[in-house]
Amino acid sequence: MIHFHKISKRYENGNDALLNISFELDQGEITFLTGHSGAGKSTLLKLIMLIERPSGGRLIVCDQDTAKVGRSAIPFYRRQIGMVFQNHQLLFDRTVYDNVALPLIIAGYRPRETGRRVRAALDKVGLLDKENLSPIALSGGEQQRVGIARAVVNKPRILIADEPTGNLDPELSAEIMDLFDQFSQVGVTVLIATHDLGLISRYDHRLLSLDSGQLISDGTDSIAADPHHQIYTGGY
Ligand SMILES: Nc1ncnc2c1ncn2[C@@H]1O[C@H](COP(=O)(O)OP(=O)(O)OP(=O)(O)O)[C@@H](O)[C@H]1O
Predict the structure, then answer these.
(1) CA 183, 205, 143, 100 torsion-angle sign
(2) Taking the model in full, what pTM does it have?
(3) What spacing in Å lies between the alpha carbon of 40 and ligand 1's midpoint?
(4) 236 pLDDT above the threshold of 90
(5) Are the C-beta atoms of 199 and 36 separated by less than 8 Å?
(6) Whose Cα sits closest to atom 26 in ligand 1?
(7) β-bridge pairing 56-61 and 64-65
(8) Is the ipTM of this complex over 0.90?
(9) CB–CB of 78/138 below 8 Å?
(10) Domains annotated on the chain, with CATH
(11) What PANTHER family has UniProt attached to this entry (predicted)?
(12) Which of 7, 12, 41, 162 is the best mutation target for the ligand 1 pocket, counting ligand atoms within 8 Å of the beta carbon and taking the most?
């Protein structure tokens, strides 16, 4: 679903943020991404979102060579990816419903289909009864669940979360992780960037660790074991 093949990223000022990174995430896999501040986590997520482009290597997402996704195709490309942020990035002058509906409105869905999908997403995160409230009236954990509903309302194939439990206590973090597990079980590939070693240790998920732009460990050693890797690398 996501294949980094010898990816490097050097910013214009000469900063090497990622160095020769290779790994592959399968459909429905749930993976943590960790590393010190400045290790390259955000850069890696930005490459998947096509907010930044690699300086070298090949990045395949949902069977698409991202180098071939031109600027005008980026909005369509991004519909395959849901994004969850630490600070939720919700609009407090809109209702919960409106916040979750936003990606569908941008994508041009009709009101009836929008309503159906928004309510399905809110039901999934247990917030159907809060649709008319402002997010400001919700707890931190509930706000994060609104953010998750908004991220999945488009039925993305990939869910990327950047410090999704940063402000939450362990109990609420577990609720958020349960939701991610449910999405992975229906085939969504989930990548969670986090500094939270406590969170990582409570789960048995694959762990990618970055250090100064290098991938220093991959919890499953799946790069060597994965037969697809041979197929992809053969042609590059
Ligand atoms: N736009 C940019 N221009 C130049 N250098 C950048 C840019 N963005 C990030 N960097 C540099 O790239 C390296 C990796 O940064 P990145 O933000 O990816 O790390 P991170 O692991 O996400 O850190 P944090 O956990 O603090 O968010 C750092 O040295 C950073 O200073």
Answers:
(1) negative
(2) 0.88
(3) 6
(4) no
(5) no
(6) 37
(7) antiparallel
(8) yes
(9) no
(10) 2-234 (3.40.50.300)
(11) CELL DIVISION ATP-BINDING PROTEIN FTSE (PTHR24220:SF470), IMPORT ATP-BINDING PROTEIN (PTHR24220)
(12) 41
